[in-house]
Design goal:
Radius of gyration: 21 Å
Strand content: 35-45%
CATH architecture: Sandwich
Distance between the termini: 54 Å
Largest sheet: 4 strands, mixed
Oligomer: single chain
Number of helices: 1
Strand order of the largest sheet: 4-1-7-8
Mean pLDDT: 87
Order of helices and strands: HEEEEEEEE
CATH topology: Immunoglobulin-like
Number of domains: 1
């Protein structure tokens, strides 16, 4: 009996240490659009989704976005629930707090919207809310 228990424990040990956890979700691409909920026209809307230079599509300028309007989707290689976003309102620059991308989860192959609001008009800080809209349906 003692021999069987040792064999079973040895087999379990080999199985548990020999298996790798697989990444069950793809990292991207991710289609991103902006919804301007600041109550102001925003210009030079620039989104940075990662600081990793291994990705080609990391930064995109959406241009000018009217109050309450949505931009077109732009396809990034990857995206996270947070991003570095800067905008101009008049001649003032507003931005989201600096993002630490290292520990954020990837969105995956979905279409998402970053909803922008002004969190603090004095320090010109934006707030970002990420809404996952739908899966990307044109990937093969």
């Amino acid at each position: 009996m003692k021999g069987r228990l040792q064999v079973v424990l040895l087999v379990l040990l080999v199985i548990m240490t020999g298996c790798k956890k697989r990444d069950m979700t793809a990292k991207g691409p991710t289609d991103v659009r902006i919804h301007n909920q600041t109550g102001q026209v925003i210009d030079e809307v620039t989104v940075t989704v990662t600081d990793d230079p291994a990705y080609v599509q990391r930064v995109h300028n959406y241009g000018t976005v009217a109050s309450g309007a949505y931009t077109e989707y732009f396809r990034f290689d990857i995206a996270h629930t947070e991003a570095d976003i800067t905008v101009k309102i008049g001649n003032l620059t507003y931005s989201t707090p600096a993002t630490q991308f290292d520990y954020l989860a990837y969105i995956g192959p979905d279409r998402i919207t970053y909803r922008l609001t002004i969190a603090d008009p004095v320090t010109r800080v934006l707030d970002i809310e990420t809404v996952i809209e739908e899966p990307i349906d044109d990937l093969k």
